[in-house]
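Dear support,

Our group has been running a series of protein-ligand predictions, and this particular one with GBH is the one our PI (initials K.S.) wants archived with full inputs and outputs. We had some confusion internally about which version of the output was final, so please treat the block below as the authoritative record. The input we submitted was:
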Amino acid sequence: MHFNKSFVFGTATSSYQIEGARLEGGRTLSIWDTFCDTPGKVYQQHNGSVACDHYYRFEEDIQQIKKLGVETYRFSVSWPRIFPEKGVLNAEGMDFYKKLTKRLREEGIKPAITLYHWDLPLWAHEEGGWVNRESVDWFMDLAKVCFQELDAEVDSWITHNEPWCAGFLGYHQGFHAPGHTNMDEAVKAVHHMLLSHGKAVQYLKNELQSKTPIGITLNLSPIYAKTDSANDQLAANNADGYSNRWFLDPVFKGQYPVDMMNLFSKYVHSYDFIKAGDMEIISTSCDFFGINYYSRGIVEFSAANDFLHRGAHSDYEKTGMGWDIAPEEFKDLIRRLRQEYTDLPIYITENGAAFDDVLENGRVHDHGRVDYIEKHLQAVSDLNDEGMNIEGYYLWSLMDNFEWSFGYDKRFGIIYVDFDSQERIWKDSAYRYAEIVKNRGTNNSNKETDTISVS
Ligand code: GBH
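Confirmed final output from the archive:
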C-alpha cells in the first residue's frame, strides 16, 4: 500500500465517548446521560460520566496523537457543554474547545470538528428533540457559535456524524438515545438533521464566506442478498434503502427514494413535514464527503419485515462486535458511490474494529485489529490506484472509550485505556499505524513519490 503526499492520516473520537466531566464546567445533561441511567439500555448501566477523563487529560491525549504522527484529529463538540440551557451560551464550555483546537494547531495537528455526534442536550429533547422542526434552529445556534469561535483554526467541519444511527437507532429501533421505537418520529428526526446540515453548510459559505471545507459523515454499509431468490433480492434492496439510500439520495440528489417513501408510508402518517425548499437546502453542495465504514450487511427475506430484514449468517471472519470483516465490499461501496452519487473528495472519517484485547506485561498484542487496519488501508490504496480520490483516513479510535450501548465492554482504541488508573497504553495496532503513517504505506522505498508503488 502507498499513499501520496497530500493524503491525510488521522484518528477520531467523539465528545460523549471520551470527555467525562458530566456536570462540570457548566455542562448539563444530554440524552445519553439519561439513557445510560435507564436500566436495561446500556451494558451494565455503564455511562460517560468519567469515560477517558479527556476533559481534564486533553493535553496528555494531544501528546499521544502527536506521537502517532498523524496529521489530523477528528473530534466532536458536546452541545450541552456549549448550550447548557436553551439560548444560554456557556463561555466555559466554548473555551474548552478553543483551547483544544489551539493546542492541536500548536502541535501541528489539523483539527477536524464534528458538530453533532449524538449528545443532544436534554433541554432540546424535552421540547421534542429532533422530531421538532425547531431543532434545526437550535442546531444552527450551535453551528454559528462554533463557526464564529473556531473557524479560523479548524481544517474541516463535519455537520453530522451518522444521522442513520442518531435517527433510526435512536427513534426507530430504540437501541440508542432517546430509545424511542417510532418510525414516524424517526423519519422526521432524520429530515431535521439533514435540513440542519444543509443550513449549516449554507451559513458557513454564504454568510461567513469561509473557505474551510465542510461536509457530512454517513455510515454506509453495502448490503447483499443471501441468495439470488427474488425475495432475498427485494430484502436487500429495501435494507439498502433503509441503511444507505435514505441518506445518500437527499444529500446528493435532493430527493428521498420513492420506493422507500412508499414502504415507510405504512408507518409515516404524512410527508407534510417536508416543506417547500427543504430538499434544495439538504442537497447544498459540500466540499467533501465523509464515510464511516465498518462492515457489510447480508440479509435474507422475512415476511414479517418490510425493510428491517434479518441479518443472515455468513462464514466471514468477524470482529469482536460480530461484524463481518469485509474490505472487498468496502471497495464495492466506494465504486458505487463514484458511479451513482458523487465526485467529491472522499474522507474515510471512521474505520476500525473492536476485539477482545488482553493487557499482558504492559503490551496488547491485538493481531486482529492490526490485520483489520492493514486490510482496509490496502483497500484505500487500491481504490486510489483506480482513481477513486480518497483524500484521507481517520482510524476509529484513538483510544478505548464509551462504546454506546456496549459501554466499556467493547474496545475500539489503538491505545488501551485502563479505566481505573486512566493510564493510556499503546496496543500493537498503535505502533503499526504509526509506522504506516510514517512510511506513507508499507515497503514504500520512496516516501516523496506520488506514483511509484513498491509492495
Ligand atoms: C460508529 O458507529 C460511531 O460513529 C462511533 O461513535 C462508534 O463508537 C463506532 O462507530 C463503533 O461502533 O451488524 O454487520 O450489519 C457505527 C455504526 C452501524 C456500524 C451499524 C455497524 C452494523 C454492522 N454502526 N453497523 S452489521
